[in-house]
Amino acid sequence: MTQELTILGIVFSLLGIVFFIVQIILIIITSLKNKLHNELLLSGTKIDGTVEKVYLQKYTQYGNKSPYRILYTYTWQGKVYHQKSCLLWDKPNFMEHDSIAVYVNDLGKSTIQL
Prior knowledge:
Elements: H1 5-43, E1 45-56, E2 68-76, E3 79-84, E4 99-104, E5 110-112
Antiparallel strand pairs: 1-2, 1-4, 2-3, 4-5
């Protein structure tokens, strides 16, 4: 039954549609994250945060290159937040306990700019 051309055509068509829908969802998520990042940089409140750790994310690769991430902490409206930066493809010039500029909004969402 799996060797019939019509069933194979239906299965591969459905797989193609599923992959297309997943692609659209991922594009939407990426654009929303980029929009939030840009909004925070333009209209967010700039506060001081502290770098907790800078590390190489070994198991994520693009070609032969792995990205870096910065773990940072900040206090906003009496609450302490621990966040991660986006993927950084060049090694950042930060060490543990360095001060870093953090942009936050009223919801506690944050980003950093290097």
